[in-house]
């Protein structure tokens, strides 16, 4: 898969939208990448899962950041044949009360998977939760880096981030 293949698939799924949008961190943007449109499109999901699977080893475990990273982790888990865990944004108040869902052994290498990075806050919080649970987290794979400081924040947490597509690439030929 090339970057252009993924860009074409994101556009075909109508996941790249233009207008005025409020982002989760409170800022605004003239474009929006709708993760729900690309994560529920089987062609996009398959491309992302295959690209992520090419970047993990058989010894890795995936960590899906709730909510958007979960379908990516599940699809990549199947494509790569590796297990995954889910990092919740907050501890659930019923049942087991877990912050991390799934099997996680002390010292396991976990590669975070996430949909879109803007400030990187969700990834950093997931990294902290996973590390607190005993995991080793040194890498994050993301679909789109909006190039708004998220990479730097994630790297400040000691995690190398690799994006399949950057905002510059995604918006390069916008009319």
Structure description:
A hairpin with a 5-residue loop joins strand 1 and strand 2 (about 30-35). The protein is built from seven helices and eight strands; from the N terminus they run αββααβαβββαβαβα. The mean pLDDT is about 95. About 35% of the residues lie in helices and about 30% in strands. The chain has helices spanning about 5-10, 35-40, 40-55, 70-80, 120-130, 150-155, 165-170, and strands at about 15-20, 30-35, 60-65, 85, 100, 110-115, 135-145, 160-165.
Which sequence of strands runs across the widest sheet? 5-4-3-6-7-8
Percentage of helical residues? 25-40%
Structural class: alpha/beta
Low-confidence blocks of residues: none
| Global geometry | globular
User: How much is the radius of gyration in Å?
Assistant: 16 Å
Could you give a quick summary of the protein structure above?
The protein is of the alpha/beta class.
Q: What secondary-structure arrangement, pairings included, does this model have?
A:
Blueprint: H1 3-12, E1 16-22, E2 28-33, H2 35-39, H3 42-53, E3 61-65, H4 69-80, E4 84-87, E5 100-101, E6 109-117, H5 121-132, E7 136-145, H6 150-156, E8 160-166, H7 167-170
Characteristic key phrases:
six-stranded mixed β-sheet; 7 helices; 8 strands; alpha/beta; 175 residues
